[in-house]
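Schema walk-through. Below, the input block comes first and the output block second. Nothing else is stored per chain. Lengths vary across the set, and this one has 428 residues.
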Amino acid sequence: MRVLMFGWEFPPHITGGLGTACFGLVKGLGKHGVDVIFVVPKAYGDEAEEGFRLVNASDMVLDFTKTIYQEHWNRIKFMEIGSNLVPYVGPEEFEKMVQEDSLKLSEETQSVFSERYQFSGKYGHKLMEEVSRYAIVASVIAEQTTYDVIHAHDWLTYAAGIAAKKVSGKPLVVHVHATEFDRSGENINQTVYELERQGMEEADLVITVSNLTRQIVIERYGIDSEKVITVHNAVEPTDRPELNEVTKHVHEKVVTFLGRVTFQKGPDYFIEAANKVLKKDPNVRFVMAGSGDLLNKMIRRAAQLHIGTKFHFTGFLNGPEVDTMFAMSDVYVMPSVSEPFGISPLEAMRSNVPVVISKQSGVSEVLKHALKVDFWDIDALADAIYGLLHYEGLKKMFIKYGKDEVDNLKWDSAAGKVLEVYQRAQTL
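--- output ---
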């Protein structure tokens, strides 16, 4: 089987869990004999192509004399939005929105599209314009490529998936890694919501990363439950023995939060729980690793609580840096308000770090050896952290059985379930 797959990012150039999940899934599908053609807006040349082909959308040349492209372009609605809008890990704010009924083909756009359009590959102020242009490029790729199924990851690529389906008539599977309700709570961006809903409606089948997300798709987007299938994420094994030799440089125990510092991830609950733990035991260091619109607010809050000397704000960490951070951690905390899945706890457990996660996360559906609390229950969160720091037997049990549990959550298995979805889509 050959799959035409659309993504927005791919390791090592990622902003969160979406790219990581795509990489794991593609490798897993390869082990099931699935030939994947993975399209990204911008390839950098250092991506690891292991058993699949990576296509750079910025290399494609468009011929706008073809009616199909003109019709699609004339239907485009686009807006300019803040650079903090990212998939899976969520938008924090919308700085500027401009929506037009249609954008007619002009000489300028003709000249741009008659040659290669260089995508930024980022999440900047012209994101929606790039999403629309990506869909047109998808039409070209779909017309020139042989494949059996189309697979589109998250709302940024749904328009591309729909365009490919219209050109080829092949079945479309969309993969929901997060919804607008996860990213923005009830204050959703209507345009993004409509793009998500259209993608799900046009798809033959919808994959969600958790049952939590599946319910949102059914209840909030009105999608038929029969076409929505849950396939939980997994984690890549690590083989970096040098991490055993990482030096902490501090004598205190280290508690880590890692992720976008946004509403969705619950960083404020982490700060408040840290304050309670430090009142019981001042010999603890807390790390907030990541960036986002709430970062400055979190720094100010730590200062207000007079715990700034016990807090480290690292900014965004890349793959190797994440592994190093876990190697220095004694406890990992994910207090997400709404987490479609959450790969980072699996990465922590893989590194022999016990975890505390919110019950409002998809990953809580598959993990048994993790302490689970309601994100809003700061007292329970603080107690869980304190318990793992001070009760050695509890910590050892969660490390031992947690590592065994995560080692069995393989992408090979998840990919096998996705393959079954492809096969079902072909019969519809």
